[in-house]
Fold this sequence. Notes:
3 domains; 15 helices; 6 strands; 33% helix
Amino acid sequence: MLSRVARQGFFMLLVIVLVSGGCDKLKGERPLRPIREYEKMIVGNLYADYVGTRNCLAACHEHDRLKLFFDASTMGAQLKKGSGMPLVDCESCHGPGSLAVRDLTPDLVAANAAKGVKTPCDFKTLIDLAALPAPAQSLICLKCHSANATFNLHNWNAGIHAVNEVSCFDCHDVHSSPDLKVTPLASGRLCFSCHEAAQMEFSLSSHHPLKEGRVFCVDCHDPHGGFGESSLQKDTVRETCVQCHPEKRGPFLYEHADVVEECLNCHAPHGSVNQRLLVAREPFLCLRCHEGHFINKPEGGAISAGYARGLYTRCTDCHSRIHGTDVPSSSGRGRFTQ
Length: 338
């Protein structure tokens, strides 16, 4: 007969085993539907045949403007002979189009053109892209952009956008203009449509100059997913920051350990009410790790360096090389004062 303590220990062990097994499932990818279900959504009408973009557009003048944009785009260039690129056309995304243009004759198109009326095709026979769930929408793009296409989106499925069911269509409109990419200047407005908290932080008194057009969201973040936290362009926050702040990279003979390890210990990445994007005002920021000390007054006596009124209220007034230095202080020790 097991004792009470033994029974409790066995019970706790059983709970740990069950929880550990559950964590493995939580870490795995869990689409709303099996991936094969999404694949079926983008196959298109099984009773239709591929007829080619030229045949589609020759029978229908509804999309003439879109055709001009597509021909001038990166994907449209792949239709040109000798491009050496995989074939990409309207049916690559919209599915086979023979049924869509089946009832459109040259005579009907000409008659409507004489009346000043465009002849639409039968859209219902094509893939209803707008009605697809986000994973299926992105899968249409990933058919090409997850292998050797430029650019390669092999990190997309592990990215925060894919996990939160943001599709490629939410940011890109392949029909809007010849340039299918989002420019760095436009990326801020696009990101702020979802990231309202970040937009507020960039409006604080001390902020990275994103609204001034000197830095952009994509300078630090990869919207298509990455290996770093918060979809950073680099593996760590520090490696991302020193791209623009190389003087803080080091290595230094005298290093400020917390600063070297993590910039976010002291700085807010987007904006702050304190100077230099600090998460707290001096001297209170430094006092979180360092005890206060006293300094000598010119007239004699000593006063707290941290709480002096009108004098020496900022630690960096003396410790100016706070990120690290190769020069020792007057005491011969690293005090970050030079």
